[in-house]
């Protein structure tokens, strides 16, 4: 999936994710933003919640996005970002 298609779907469904799981922000990053993802690639999404990222919220977002986008999704919370990865993610993140 290319970045334009992924971003369009994320924008359309962001309010649903906010209502169901307390999502306050989404950002696409990784190969999808660079349009270098292959057919077996997952989609990397930086997710911010309005409270703790409980298992129910985290996996709820993951499964909802996988159903929406039709491929594996790797949701990453800000807290889970490794310090060595943070500059790269922040530089290429495309916020929804």
Automatic annotation (TrEMBL):
Classification via Pfam families: NTP_transf_2 (PF01909)
Gene3D superfamilies in the record: Beta Polymerase, domain 2
* Signal peptide annotation: none
GO MF term list: ATP binding; metal ion binding; nucleotidyltransferase activity
What is the top-level taxon of the source organism? Bacteria
Q: Which UniProt keywords apply?
A: ATP-binding, Magnesium, Metal-binding, Nucleotide-binding, Nucleotidyltransferase, Toxin-antitoxin system, Transferase
Its needed co-factors are: Mg(2+)
Q: What is stated as this protein's family in its record? A: Belongs to the MntA antitoxin family.
Protein's name in the database? Polymerase nucleotidyl transferase domain-containing protein
Taxonomic lineage of the native organism: Bacteria, Pseudomonadati, Pseudomonadota, Gammaproteobacteria, Candidatus Kentrum
């Amino acid at each position: 999936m290319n970045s334009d298609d992924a971003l369009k779907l994320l924008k359309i469904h962001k309010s649903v994710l906010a209502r169901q799981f307390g999502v306050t922000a989404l950002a696409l990053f990784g190969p999808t933003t660079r349009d270098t993802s292959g057919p077996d690639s997952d989609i990397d999404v930086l997710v911010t919640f309005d409270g703790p990222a409980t298992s129910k919220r985290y996996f709820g977002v993951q499964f909802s996005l996988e159903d929406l986008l039709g491929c594996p999704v790797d949701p990453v919370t800000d807290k889970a970002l490794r310090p060595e990865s943070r500059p790269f993610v922040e530089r290429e993140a495309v916020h929804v």
